[in-house]
Design goal:
TIM Barrel
Amino acid sequence: MISRGEERLAGILAAIAATRAGLPRQPPLLVKIAPDLAEEALGPLVETCVAQGVAGLIVSNTTIARPESLRSPHRAEAGGLSGMPLLERSTAVLRACFRLARGRLTLVGVGGVASGADALAKIRAGASLVQVYTGFAYAGPGLVPRLKAELAALLRREGFTGVADAVGTDAQGST
């Protein structure tokens, strides 16, 4: 049975498809999801996206959760939380989406990426692409070459010949 959330998502995606139908070139459509989704909601969401022809998922958006590890005096403020506090949860959701998608969707890992090790964690969880926001805001453009060098060194050290070889290696097995 389809839930109200999947029904609404399917309606939105159908409307987008209808709008794009007359375009001579249709860029891939990606859906960005929140890390706050319940695990049981991920399967229906993935299946809805696949059924509607979505190319991939961006995992994940900001969180409304406030982890106990937050130490800022502003930790109770409302709004989306991004950056390092999001790394663990967003990577767990990414890993689950990888298992559920079974290669049918491209996955973009987002949330807390500030180093090559963070990028590799996203890749090993199932991301084919990694996106940085907060880390870039704090570290500036110098983050990109540093992250690239760190990632390349880590891939070599762990015996991977490239990013593609590492995708999903930590997500294999249990569902």
